[in-house]
Amino acid sequence: MKDEVFYGKGIHELEGEYPDLYDLVKNISEVVYDGHALDYKTQKLIAIGITASRADPRATKKQIKSGMQELDITKEEIMDVLKIVLLTSGMPAFSKAVQILNSVIETQ
Asked: What is the DSSP string of 40-80?
């Protein structure tokens, strides 16, 4: 089962006060990660690349962590994605993502 990984911090705050809105946001993940043409692992690797290319440390860490825990995504697979980030988004985004990847691996 996929963990509830939300982009924004405030989503969990909706759960008690606005449960219908919370459920809507929660279910987006299931709709997006449906594996229709691409399997969940490939979709997760794309999500890692997108968050890394945006240089978003919080989202990148969550995507890497959940990908490694849920799908046994390896460091080598993530580095393949991060090489594309280097090519398309540049050294700052790549460097930050590599640091995040290494910090996730160190805490496992």
From this structure: HHHHHHHHHHHHHHTT-HHHHHHHHHHHHHHH---HHHHHH
What is the spatial distance between Cα 46 and Cα 100, in angstroms, rounded to a whole number?
16
Q: Which pLDDT tens digit goes with each residue over 32-81?
A: 888 889 999 999 999 999 999 999 999 999 999 999 999 999 999 999 99
Whether residue 62 contacts residue 5, with contact meaning beta carbons closer than 8 Å, is answered with yes
Q: Name the strand (E) or helix (H) holding 104.
A: helix 91-106
Q: Are residues 45 and 78 in contact, defined by beta-carbon separation less than 8 angstroms?
A: yes
Structure tokens at 47: 């999500």
